[in-house]
Amino acid sequence: STQKPLVMSRHLGVSSLSMNLSKNCCLTYCFNTVLCSITYMTLHEPSLGSGEESWEASSAELERRCRLGSEVTSLSHITSMEKCEHYFKLSSPIRLKLDGYFVLCVFIFNVFPTMNLTDFRDNSLLKLQVGGPFLGGMEAVQEAQEYILIQVEQTEEAGSRRRRTQQVLYNWTIPLHSQRSDQILRTRTFEMVSSAPILISVQAFLLDSQVVPLSMTHQSLYVTVETQVLIAGLILAGVYVLIIFEIVHRTLAAMLGSLAALAALAFIGDRPSLMTVVEWIDYETLALLFGMMILVAIFSETGFFDYCAVKAYQLSRGRVWPMIMILCLIAAVLSAFLDNVTTMMLFTPVTIRLCEVLNLDPRHVLIAEVIFTNIGGAATAVGDPPNVIIVSNQDLRKKGIDFAAFTGYMFLGICLVLLTSFPFLRMLYWNKKLYNKESSEIVELKHEILVWRQTAHRINPASREETAVKCLLMQKVLNLESLLRKKLKTFQRQISQEDKNWEHNIQELQKKHRITDKILLVKCLTVLGVVIFMFFLNSFVPAIHLELGWIAILGALWLLVLADIQDFEIILHRVEWATLLFFAALFVLMEALAHLQLIDYIGEQTAVLIKVMPEDERLAIAIILVMWVSALASSLIDNIPFTATMIPVLINLSQDADVNLPIKPLIFALAMGACLGGNGTLIGASANVVCAGIAEQHGYGFSFMEFFRLGFPMMLMTCTIGMCYLLATHIGLHWNT
User: Fold this and answer.
1) Which is more confidently placed, 113 or 344?
2) Which stretch of DSSP H or E encloses residue 508?
3) CA angle 212-214-217, nearest 5°?
């Protein structure tokens, strides 16, 4: 029945089948799961062997670099070694546990793809991946005129294990695209009853005699869906424990979580290849971050941020809370039209300099700004990635959820949320001392000590000259610490509530903080203006085929050429490499958790709960359930894959005749929860992580718990207001129903 001979291939236990089907043809494919599992033992990859020698070598190299050399005086040598030990070493029990965890994950990741430690057993899973010219959306199958039907059948005869014959049959219908051009992958998992042979039938129902190219991959998984979800939940909980209690840096925690998730996939028989893992990383986001970091790094050399801080101090007239409210409102408005990450990368340096001028603690102000940035991003269809995913879905556009309708509804709701957020924020900050409890001179001295120490740690003593420079820096730290102790002895604590001498201070600050390079400032403003203008065009003009990442990278290259940077390494030192690595590891972690069925399981269980509710209360309960599940899930996992997974679940739910729910309230509840839920935790939104990374680079880093104490209550309050808005409009006023 096929136009060409079948092409079979196997790689690491995965069987692939390529075929061309013509009109009304049928292909039956039978395979034995036990025979498939035997081929695992014939594979071996020596390149994936043990890495003890390289690990020991890297440890020795790290220990060697921590030493300052025999040329250092005893005092500075002891001090620097204490700092290095504090910076790199963990307590012995925790270090031993992490070492054991690392060895176990590496062992599982290397051994399970090459050895068949488990045969295909009862209640195992069969994973099918089919590639072909399928429809990209979730169009109803009954509306498609051309489609393929895949039947998966397994029969176990009666015997010693079972008294009667048991048979399972699954039908999988996939609608075909009329163009026959784009190759789209579809994946589905089927539960098998035993190790008996499995029969797969593929039938093509076509209107013409054109050939349909198809590829199919089948793979045996050794763990049930519930067990996969449990493993994924444990991995996610472990990552949060590492971050919450600051056992390791959040970047290392994300990397260890990614390794554990990949090891779990290898354990169940679904180990991805290196190319697949690399494809999981969202390079557009990384390019956007890298490009904006370069732009901000060059921009900061002009003194513009200091100048803006002085002007904001002058406008506030020494009053702190009006200034904070204005900053939060501007951040919310900008994030409605710009990407949240871009908004925070521009706002964070200005806020830090402003707080230093006012002798404020920047941490609380930055957390407030990033919270309102996430709230403002939910107001429009281009403010947050989940909104972009929703308005880009073709099926939802057919239902009337386009750019204008989505923005109009969400904008009204977010304005209501903002009006209630300002007084609630003031209530949260009621007992918090925004002013530093010490004089500005002591605060600046402490910050200077921290910056000098960080600079010393970043120097790798590869030569005698670099070792000598590091020694001088550490000696500088010792001298400053001695000076700080003297000042603290004579200091009388005075907590300012309002700067009474702000007019006199303005004159002093204007002399100190000026624009240092006006020519470079003009170049930076020109490039940054063009980049932001292109961001707007990319959001509103579909004809522009440049993504945000490309725009940021091209803008950074343009500014590097105009600025004529001679020492390029200085600019690269200003790039937050730890933040970029964190996002890369986070993308891999979330995609691996999705492959472990965690996100699909959340969506399916949400749909099951909605179906069992009484019909007269189903819509209200569905709005509440989708809203809070989305908010809580988005505060723990990335909201982008969660939104992409929930959209088809909600569409299918609305098309179910037994449920009879409108699609618009469910989608708006999903958008509201996914956007506002990012304020729940530090890693709930990309803007949170970017803000924390820049603040840490300036010496004002805040921990997971510091953000959680302010962000989580704000998330609960804003989601409650958003839920009330949804219920009032859809249940009370019957909008869009």
Assistant:
1) 344
2) helix 502-512
3) 170
pLDDT digits (tens, 9 = 90+) for 150-193: 988 888 777 666 667 778 888 888 888 877 677 788 888 888 77
Q: In 215-316, where does DSSP find H-type helix?
A: 225-244, 250-267, 274-280, 283-299, 304-316
Torsion (CA) 349, 354, 359, 363 in degrees, nearest 10: -40
Residue 672's nearest CA partner among 606, 637, 625, 705 is: 625
Evaluate whether 286 touches 583 at the Cβ level (below 8 Å). Answer: yes
> How much is the pLDDT for 455?
78
Q: In sequence order, what are the residues at sequence separation of 6 or more whose Cβ sits closer than 8 angstroms to the Cβ of residue 501?
A: none
In this predicted structure, what is the pLDDT of residue 94?
Answer: 63
Q: State what percent of residues in the chain have pLDDT above 70.
A: 77
Count Cβ neighbours within 10 Å for each residue of 455-465 and write b for 16 or more, e otherwise.
ebbeeebeeee
pTM for the structure as a whole = 0.73
- Amino acid found at 52: E
Whether 711 contacts 400, CB under 8 Å: no
Taking only the tens place, the pLDDT of each residue in 661-716 is: 889 999 999 999 999 999 999 988 889 999 998 998 888 888 899 999 999 999 99
- CA-CA-CA-CA torsion sign (678, 682, 685, 688): positive
- Whether 684 and 630 have beta carbons less than 8 Å apart is answered as no
Q: How far apart are alpha carbons 638 and 686 in whole angstroms?
A: 9
Measured on CA atoms in the order 545, 550, 552, 558, is the torsion positive or negative? Answer: negative
32-36 contact pairs (CB < 8 A, 24+): 32/197, 32/198, 33/120, 33/124, 33/126, 33/192, 33/195, 33/196, 33/197, 33/198, 33/220, 34/119, 34/120, 34/195, 36/120, 36/220
User: Distance (Å, rounded) from C-alpha 307 to C-alpha 524?
Assistant: 15
Q: And the tokens for 202?
A: 């593929």
Q: Which of 12, 71, 70, 69 is nearest to 40 (CA)?
A: 12
Q: Are 478 and 78 in contact (CB under 8 A)?
A: no
Q: What is the pLDDT of residue 500?
A: 53
Element (H, E) at 191: strand 184-191
Cα distance between residue 406 and residue 530, in whole Å = 28
State how far the Cα of 329 lies from the Cα of 339, in Å rounded to an integer: 16
Please report the DSSP string for 209-242 in residue order. Answer: S--EEEEEEEEEE-S-HHHHHHHHHHHHHHHHHH
| Burial letters 640-671, b for 16+ CB under 10 A, else e | bbbbbbbbebbbebbeeeebebebbbbbbbbb
Burial of 517 (0-12, 13-18, 19+ CB in 10 A): middle
Query: 320-335 and 403-428 helices cross at what angle (nearest 10)?
Result: 160
221 strand-pairing partners: 125
> Is 558's pLDDT higher than 80?
yes
Residues 273-298 as b or e (16 or more Cβ within 10 Å = b): eeeebeebbbeebbbbbbbbbbbbbb
* pLDDT tens string 583-640: 899 889 989 998 898 888 888 888 888 888 888 888 999 999 999 999 999 998 878 8
C-alpha 557/C-alpha 546 separation (Å) is 15
pLDDT given for residue 212 in this prediction: 83
Supply the pLDDT for residue 542.
66
Element (H, E) at 421: helix 403-428
Numbers of helices and strands, H then E, in the chain: 28, 9
663, two tokens: 């699609």
